Amino acid sequence: MARLMIAHIIAAAAFAMAGPVLADAAAGQKTFQGQCSTCHAVTPGTNKIGPSLSGVVGRTAASVPGYKYSAGMTKSGLTWTAAELDTYLAAPKATVAGTKMTYAGVKDATKRGDIVAYLATLK
Q: Can you list the domains of the chain with their CATH numbers?
């Protein structure tokens, strides 16, 4: 009985730590459309106020052709992993000093996770 209880606790902890795996890309798309699409396109080669976010997950920061990045972003050395995107979306100016992104950030961790899950679908 004790072993079964411990197994359930371990499984529950692993499930809780999965976080981003449980994110909802469809909800992230809706949030993106409401909060991000004014400045960012998801079509390759289409830059707006901000760069295209097509294929952003796994991409080196400041690498979209034809977009003029801030010096801070160019020097950041970031690679846009899911974790790095989550950190940046929480507080862009705190993550990259001198970023051109004026958006204050997405404070709700669930919404951020959903947005990152959506961005991960863009190729």
A: 23-121 (1.10.760.10)
